[in-house]
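Handout, page 2. Input:
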Amino acid sequence: MPAYLIGTIRVTDPATWQRYVEQVGATFPPHGGTVLFRGSKALELNRSAHGERVVVAQFDSLAALRAWHGCAEYQALIALRDGGAEVTLTAYEA
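Output:
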């Protein structure tokens, strides 16, 4: 069953965030993850969402998503991520 990662992002340090973005993409493929899209908030239709940016990634399973999140390569980027933005990550199964 596919699993999806949705991250909502409020950038606090653009330079640090850019360094994170340049590195994080390489952590997905070894775990079967694919970034479906990254985008910026265009319009709020009902209430206010966290952050001004979003990322959605797809994995083959929740286990694969969890393996990605726990892998050493991603864990090594968390300090950089948190130094550049306020990020909320949520996993969903389809």
